[in-house]
Design goal:
The protein folds into 2 domains: 83 residues, no CATH class; 121 residues, no CATH class. The protein is 48% helix and 2% strand. The chain is built from 13 helices and 2 strands. 25% of the residues are buried. The structure holds zinc ion (3 copies). One zinc ion binds next to loops. InterPro entries: Znf_RING/FYVE/PHD.
Length: 279
């Protein structure tokens, strides 16, 4: 009955049948056994108690876990994420590299306010959390890059000796451009380019400052971007603001993309861009 009540409250589809009842009963019994000491009986079901909030936030380590059905797992994960979004901190946020820029100080999410469900990944080493968007790559188990175990690709060297072609392709640039515009890839820079008034200070913070390529290589890359995306035509027709787009969005996103192809997370790529040692 509690189970049904929960589903109704969460407005979820009923995805269990009478055949699941023995498993569900066992699950509930285990929950009760795990979480109720003699003097805190029932606290777990009262949403205002610390015990219950911790359970929802996934901070309770169960003594025993049942294997869940796939659909059930999805629903439970969504519940966990919703509850813990409030408390979980994206590692990229303190350096102002988070795609969403959640902030513990203001309690405000500045970017992509329309996104309700954010996926999270946890680093196997430091146990820190990142938004899936702030990681930008998928791997199992997830490694945020804190161990610095992935060898730094020598992008600057490759570009210096082989030219832009050695690292970037027009197809890659075109795909990235389209994904940024469609929102398939979420980027703080893209959001701020579209909504600069959100935070000019942040927009400034995310500008590329440390590119040590020769001017010739730089010019080549900008040319490459313009050609791959037809931005060039538009700039010639007077849409000068697109120059900003090339510098402030496409260029950094392209460098991040290049690093991600070496298994480096967006978060780590941002740190590398900020210290500039590989560009
Ligand atoms: Zn984030
Ligand atoms: Zn880590
Ligand atoms: Zn390093």
């Amino acid at each position: 009955m509690l189970m049904s009540a929960m589903y109704i409250v969460m407005e979820s589809q009923f995805d269990y049948s009478v055949h699941d009842m023995p498993v569900l009963r066992r699950w509930w019994c285990l929950l009760l056994l795990e979480n109720n000491s003699l003097n805190s009986c029932g606290k777990i079901f009262a949403h205002w108690t610390k015990e219950c909030q911790e359970l929802i936030a996934g901070k309770h380590t169960p003594v025993f876990s049942l294997k869940r059905k796939a659909e059930q797992q999805d629903i439970e994960e969504t519940m966990t994420q919703t509850a813990s979004d409030v408390q979980r901190m994206c590692m990229a946020d303190s350096m102002q590299f988070c795609v969403y820029q959640t902030s513990n100080n203001t309690g405000e999410r500045l970017l992509y306010p329309e996104v309700n469900f954010m996926k999270w990944v946890q680093c196997k080493t430091c146990r820190g959390w990142l938004h899936q968007d702030c990681a930008g790559i998928e791997m199992e188990p997830f490694d945020c890059g804190c161990e610095d175990s992935i060898e730094h690709p020598r992008i600057k060297d490759a570009v210096d000796s082989g030219g832009i072609h050695a690292v970037f392709s027009k197809t890659q640039i075109k795909t990235l451009h389209d994904d940024l515009l469609s929102g398939k890839i979420r980027s703080n820079r893209m959001f701020l380019w579209r909504n600069p008034a959100t935070s000019l200070r942040l927009k400034q913070h995310l500008k590329i400052r440390t590119l040590s390529w020769s001017e010739q290589r730089m010019f080549e890359l900008l040319r490459f971007i313009e050609e791959a995306t037809t931005i060039s035509e538009k700039i010639k027709r007077g849409e000068i603001h697109l120059l900003d787009f090339v510098f402030d969005v496409m260029l950094p996103e392209l460098l991040i993309k290049a690093l991600q192809e070496h298994g480096i997370t967006r978060f780590r790529a941002e740190q590398m861009m900020a210290c500039g040692n590989i560009f």
